Amino acid sequence: MSLFLVSGAKEVFAKKIKKQNVLLIFTDDHRYSGVHALGHQQVKTPNIDALATNGIAFTNAYLMGSFSGATCVPSRAMLHTGRQLFHLKGEGHFIPEDQTTIGERFNEAGYNTQMVGKWHQDNNSLVRSFDSGSTVMGRGLYLTDHFRMPLWDWDKEAKFSNDDAYLLVYDENGNTVRRALTKEDKRGPTGTEEDGPHTSEIFADKAINYIESYKEKDPFFMYLAFHAPHDPRQAPQKYRDMYPADSIQLPPSYMPQHPFDNGHMVLRDEALAPWPRTPEVARQHLADYYAIITHLDAQIGRVITALKESGQYENTLIVFAGDSGLAVGCHGLIGKQSVYDEDGVHVPFIISGANGAEKGKRIDALTYTYDIFPTICDLTNLSIPESVDGKSLVPVIKGEKKQVRDYTYHAYRQHQRAYRKGDYKLIEFVRAKDFSKQKGEFVSGSRVTLLFNIKNDPWETTNLSFLPEYEEVLKVMRIEMKEKAVELGDYKEHIDYAYDFWDFY
């Protein structure tokens, strides 16, 4: 069976009857411009660039949004279920059994399913999605340290208890050994490359071990979820030396401070840097961000090399994507808690492999991360589960359609909404109620409207909303955004969330 056809010529790329393996690589807080071949920034990503060179890169791929500051929770829930934000269970921590996961679908089709790395949903959805796994992270203990990351072995019984967590460290001979956590293991980041392997190295090692030892006749589906480049932005010194802070170029949207309260200015991510974000502070954060990305890229390169050396590369569909954007100084922000493009929702998405894609192609069709599930199913000739909302991009890949969507809609908690259509993007901010255990109920945010020509101004630097010549564009965009909110289910009677943006709009 073929994977898909070349646009225009309609030539078959892969004619093997044998089912393709699938390697799905998902990175954390990896914005679109964090891949050199896509954003053309200073960051060095030769191995991810090679995936794009040998495949298709989607230039308008987006996270739909989040009702949590931990945007990686709904992002992963959307990836694994193929369901849009307003159809998740709550914030996405829990995946109900009637929502088929991508791992389950491939398991049903006879694939051996394997996961490595970060998991942010409930334990039952983890173990029902995969036959096996290795070195799982994110099950309740976190030391905020890539060199001291609590890990778990695969547990088909879904226990993953704190008592079973361990760290990987170097002994006096430089060998990697495991040890139990102790009360002396305080939150970091305090680890260095002298203490133990980096999470990116650990997860790459486990993926490589699986690939090198794989002898089954049935194909495999591997979900490889790196924690990088999520903060703390730690990397071995070799990679840090590649990016002297004083050589870093600031992006067009750099600001020392966000010009108004966006509703969620006081949280962990924004506390990583002092206010104002001076050019020196922003350059250092970008230098650290680029360093951990380049280190991550090297580990991805090792995994691809293992595929080639094992003879599996020619028969493996490789899908690479990031879970969210990240500001790192854009618009005066550091985290990803916004609906600006690079700062929050614009992500890299590449489909590659020796027989898997038209080499070097760029597709500007609008897409969400939850479209990845149905697209992979379509490429591997699997039926798409009924519980999936996403749209397959295969018609676009084949050249049958230019778009499968004519707009995107984004939400961040009760404070921010965005609507993108054609060349324009509307962002609406409101002043809304909020709640915390420390403060109880309070009010935060600002009532602000932003309108950008996203085609001419991709970094979103020039607000057009107050200019008379854009009055009609703004009017239409506002009307349509409200209509899409109802269609998508973005209202309090439908979603399990305490506050409704539209009550404050």
Which descriptors would you attach to this protein?
505 residues, alpha/beta, Alkaline Phosphatase, subunit A, Arylsulfatase, C-terminal domain, 2 domains, 8-stranded mixed sheet, 5-stranded mixed sheet, 12 helices, disordered N terminus, metal ion binding, Sulfatase_N, calcium, Arylsulfatase
Task: Draw up the topology in text.
Blueprint: E1 21-27, H1 36-39, H2 46-53, E2 56-58, E3 61-62, E4 65-66, H3 72-81, H4 102-108, E5 112-118, H5 123-129, E6 132-137, E7 166-170, E8 176-180, H6 199-213, E9 220-225, H7 237-240, H8 279-310, E10 316-322, H9 341-345, E11 346-347, E12 349-352, E13 361-363, E14 367-368, H10 372-379, H11 394-397, E15 408-412, E16 416-421, E17 424-436, E18 440-453, H12 471-488
Helix pairs in contact: 6-8
Family: Belongs to the sulfatase family.
Protein name: Arylsulfatase
Domain Sulfatase N-terminal: 20-381
What do you see in this structure?
The protein is of the alpha/beta class. It has 2 domains: 21-397, 3-Layer(aba) Sandwich (Alkaline Phosphatase, subunit A); 408-503, Arylsulfatase, C-terminal domain (2-Layer Sandwich). Helices cover 24% and strands 20% of the residues. The strands form 4 sheets. The chain has an 8-stranded mixed beta sheet with strand order 6-5-9-1-10-12-2-13, sandwiched between helices. Helix 6 (199-213) runs parallel beside helix 8 (279-310). Residues 20-381 form the Sulfatase N-terminal domain. It comes from Labilibaculum filiforme. Its cofactor is Ca(2+). Belongs to the sulfatase family.
